[in-house]
Amino acid sequence: MNPETIARRLKGLRLESGLTVNEVARECEVADSTVRMWELGQRIPSDPVKVKLSKLFKQSVQTIFFD
Question: Is residue 24 a contact partner of residue 38, using CB atoms and an 8 Å limit?
Answer without folding.
Answer: no
